[in-house]
């Protein structure tokens, strides 16, 4: 068997494996959306849940998911981006850098349920906040910090290779170079990592069970406050997200059509995660093209 035949066989095998992966994803997404197809309507998406009768919607849980997503990203992005800049541009080889990298790798390997239990002990009990939006956001930040830090570090390193020396040679300081030259070049990759992290937040359940809680209060948008627990914008109220609601429906069956509602909610969740991933690709490509001047 000559080299060309071996190459063709290997190529065919790789194409088959890739096709199987795509087929598995299509079957998985198709099955979930098909089961929840009857619930994909405005009444379901924005309606109030009904616990004593059939019907109801996921309006509260959908709002809680997006609100928790925003709070978690406000915590994660500055820390992850700052850590990436430090590791790529300021950190020197040595024991401290090895400890930092070991800590990042260890955090990245933690199961979400372990992070949830840590959040229960620290953010819920030790602080005395109880089950709150802020507790859930901090737990999610712990989950996403390692991946966002690595994405930011790699993006900054790859972006700085061609432009860093030129900027410094023209008299710019290191911070000016990072702020004006390197970060704009690295933004497409960093933004992709941010949107992918947002998709993970939207679908996370295990860590939020022990931190954000499993109750969703009625939303009164006329009450705007970050501290009043009766306000939908409060950081100190329980916040049942869509993923947690799906788990609760399947485990407790508290309404007559729990399976139908869970199916519809799962379909919405999968669609949102897919949208986050597609948006990450399209937005990252558009920003890259705008900076490089390509079409």
State the fourth-level CATH superfamily of the largest domain: MetI-like
Number of strands: 0
What characterizes the major β-sheet? none
Tally of structural domains: 2
What is the general shape? globular
Q: Output the helix-strand order.
A: HHHHHHHHHH
Mean pLDDT: 84
The helix content is: over 70%
CATH topology of the largest domain: MetI-like fold
What is the gyration radius calculated from CA atoms?
Answer: 23 Å
Q: Would you state the CATH class of the largest domain? A: Mainly Alpha
Strand content: under 5%
Pick out the low-confidence regions: none
InterPro entries: MetI-like, MetI-like_sf, Phosphate_PstA
Keywords: Cell membrane, Membrane, Transmembrane, Transmembrane helix, Transport
Subcellular location: Cell membrane
Domain ABC transmembrane type-1: 62-280
């Amino acid at each position: 068997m000559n080299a060309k035949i071996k190459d063709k066989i290997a190529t065919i095998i790789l194409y088959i494996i890739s096709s199987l992966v795509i087929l598995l994803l299509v079957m998985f997404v198709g099955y979930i959306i098909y089961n929840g197809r009857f619930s994909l309507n405005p009444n379901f998406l924005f309606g109030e849940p009904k616990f004593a009768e059939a019907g109801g919607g996921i309006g509260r849980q959908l709002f809680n998911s997006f609100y928790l997503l925003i709070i978690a990203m406000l915590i994660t992005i500055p820390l992850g981006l700052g850590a990436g800049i430090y590791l790529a541009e300021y950190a020197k080889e040595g024991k401290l850098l090895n400890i930092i990298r070991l800590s990042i790798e260890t955090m990245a390997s933690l199961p979400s349920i372990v992070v949830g239990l840590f959040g229960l002990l620290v953010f819920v009990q030790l602080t005395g906040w109880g089950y709150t939006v802020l507790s859930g956001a901090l737990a999610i930040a712990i989950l996403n910090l390692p991946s966002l830090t690595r994405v930011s570090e790699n993006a900054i390193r790859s972006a700085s290779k061609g432009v860093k020396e030129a900027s410094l040679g023209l008299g710019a300081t290191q911070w000016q170079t990072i702020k004006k030259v390197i970060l704009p070049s690295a933004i497409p990759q960093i933004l992709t990592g941010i949107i992918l992290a947002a998709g993970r937040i939207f679908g996370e359940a295990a860590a939020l069970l022990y931190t954000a809680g499993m109750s969703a209060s009625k939303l009164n948008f006329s009450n705007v406050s970050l501290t009043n627990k009766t306000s939908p914008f409060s950081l100190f109220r329980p916040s049942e997200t869509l993923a947690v609601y799906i788990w609760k429906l399947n485990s407790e069956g508290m309404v007559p059509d729990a399976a139908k509602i869970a199916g519809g909610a799962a379909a919405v969740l999968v669609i949102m995660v897919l949208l986050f991933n597609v948006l990450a690709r399209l937005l990252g490509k558009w920003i890259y093209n705008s900076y490089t001047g390509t079409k």
